[in-house]
Amino acid sequence: MKGGEVEEMRMKRGMSKGLALLVLATLFCGVDVAPVGAEAVKIGLVDLQRVLVESKKGKEPLAKLKADMDAKNRDLEAQEKRVRQMEADLEKQQSVLSEAARKEKQKAIQKAQVDLSRTVDDLKREFGERERELRQRLVREVATVVQEYGKKNGYVLIMEMRAAGVMYSSDGADISKEIIAAYEGGGGSQKK
Asked: Lower CB count within 10 Å: N or C terminus of the chain?
């Protein structure tokens, strides 16, 4: 091999590495760069949390769950208030109560405290389960909408913004607003 041929091979290798880096950078940044006549690669990002919080279909069931939790919390507060009242009554009456009556009231207070603690644990478990199931259902629904939207609008890839660990993307890559509209029944075919 002559010196010129070696130099030419190095240049070709360097150009192919540069081209590969350009393609990778294009994919990660969401920029549509394609040679003349070639189809552009469309990549989108969706902020799932935003879709769940801002869409009517996400807000309503989450608000209902929160209202149910708030109602149960009010019941718990009333139950806790009764326990505190029982303790205050025992404190006031302690000097006039017989030993048997005092022990009976202490036993009733302990039972009420244990019942309250169990109720709190049960409700935490119940509402944790309900919230998890609700979010799983909503995520499945949104995933279906995202898939339909992607197919209709020619996306090669749509990633969840937070789970994908996206550190930067152009404003145009975030299609959360369009997904919210599609999820709420506005159709999945809005062109970007």
From this structure: N
